[in-house]
Specification:
The protein is of the alpha+beta class. Helices cover about 50% and strands about 20% of the residues. Strand 4 and strand 5 form a beta hairpin. Helix 11 runs antiparallel to helix 13.
Length: about 400
């Protein structure tokens, strides 16, 4: 009995030691064990096998979760709240902020001080929309923060989602709905006024009315009615032009070489550019670059951007416009650059809004239409500009 107890204690000690060091690979030989220890060893082996199965399942789940988090578009960072030590970041976060490595969350302050201050003050469970600049382009990021505890330590989990494209699409749809309502109401209200003015003018030609009114008064009446008719017709024409923003709903897509697209635009704009003595350069390194586009609509966008660029450089002693194209991050970028007057930050935020124009004779429809065309192509259009140095409009195709 004493020998059995000692042997059993040794077996239990060895088993406890393997559990302590999480060594579940050990096997207790049941076949060679004394009869009274066979069940004990069998029980140890069953427990080890169960732990090994649980460990494999957890490891599989861990790798599965890691793979999912690496594939999602949302940037994710986890760090210890007290020390700021970063526990884990995924590739989406690295690509979003162009940061290959992050040891502590505080080190983000050196790279992006304003961005760091924004996210560090967000309360757990809240969302905040912040803006960062990447490659001279503004990106809107929705930040969400959660808190969790493991072994008495508190950790923060930050999720960063690029919502620029989604916001642009939502904004575009909102403007379309507004324009539909406004154009409908204006057309319904103004059309009868124009028709009534025409009727009144015809009645003034009636001899009975014409002879009963003094010539000076008749002339004033005709002038007033002509003014009402002319302005109402002008308003109708103006309103009709805004309907163009909502007419484009489908695309006639075809593969087009970017070099051919830019050459066609050059041919179309050449007479205007030569007349105004403006230099136009075309820069494209890869002549095989191709995009699936509705060529008529994209040409309309490029022509509009070039007309704006011509206006911007008109006071420059050496006016220059550059058309360029390149592939970047699996996307094709077409850029229209100029060395014109440039724009302020406040102006940049408004130029794609319908009705807004920087020119006295502008309708504010051009850039709004350009943006809608690019959104229909599942792309986008952005602008980089510095006052006094020029602007760059970037058309981005997925």
């Amino acid at each position: 009995m004493i020998r059995f107890n000692k042997k059993a204690q040794q077996e239990i000690s060895q088993f406890v030691e393997s559990i302590h060091y999480r060594d579940f690979s050990r096997y207790f030989d049941v076949g060679r064990a004394p009869g009274e220890l066979k069940e004990l060893r069998k029980g140890f082996n069953d427990i080890n096998n169960t732990f090994k199965l649980i460990s494999r399942e957890k490891e599989t789940q861990y790798h599965y979760l890691q793979k999912i988090l690496e594939l999602v578009d949302t940037g994710i960072v986890s760090y210890e709240q007290e020390t700021g030590e970063v526990i884990w970041i995924n590739e989406s976060f690295k690509n979003l902020l162009n940061i290959p490595y992050l040891k502590t969350i505080q080190s983000l302050a050196k790279r992006e001080p304003a961005f760091y201050n924004d996210i560090i003050n967000i309360k757990p469970g809240d969302n905040k929309l912040v803006t960062i600049t990447r490659n001279q382009q503004q990106i809107k990021i929705l930040v969400n923060i959660s808190i969790y505890k493991i072994e008495e330590k508190t950790y923060k989990l930050l999720a960063f989602q690029n919502v620029s494209e989604a916001l642009d699409e939502t904004e575009s749809k909102a403007w379309q709905k507004l324009l539909n309502i406004m154009t409908h109401e204006i057309m319904n209200s103004v059309a009868p006024i124009s028709s009534l003015a025409e009727t009144l003018k015809n009645r003034l030609q009636n001899p009975q009315i014409a002879n009963s009114v003094a010539p000076a008064e008749l002339e004033d009446l005709e002038l007033g009615i002509d003014t009402i008719k002319r302005r109402s017709e002008g308003l109708l024409k103006f309103t009709e032009s805004y309907r163009n923003l909502n007419k484009i709903t489908q695309l006639d897509l075809e593969p087009v070489l970017v070099c051919n697209l830019l050459e066609n635009i050059n041919s179309l704009m050449l007479p205007t550019l030569e007349k105004k003595q403006i230099e136009l350069d075309i820069i494209i390194k890869d002549l095989t670059l191709a995009v699936d586009i509705d060529i008529n609509l994209v040409e309309q966008v490029l022509i509009n951007l070039l007309i704006n660029a011509v206006e911007a450089v008109k006071d420059n002693n050496q006016p220059r416009i550059v058309l360029s194209a390149e592939a970047q991050n699996n996307k094709i970028l077409i850029k229209v650059s100029d060395n014109g007057t440039g724009m302020s930050t406040e102006l940049i935020d408004k130029i794609f809004i319908p009705f807004f124009s920087t020119r006295k004779t502008g309708s504010g429809i051009g850039l709004s239409l350009c943006k809608q065309i690019m959104l229909l192509h599942k792309g986008n259009i952005q602008v980089q500009s510095t006052e006094g140095k020029g602007s760059v409009f970037i058309m981005q195709f997925s």
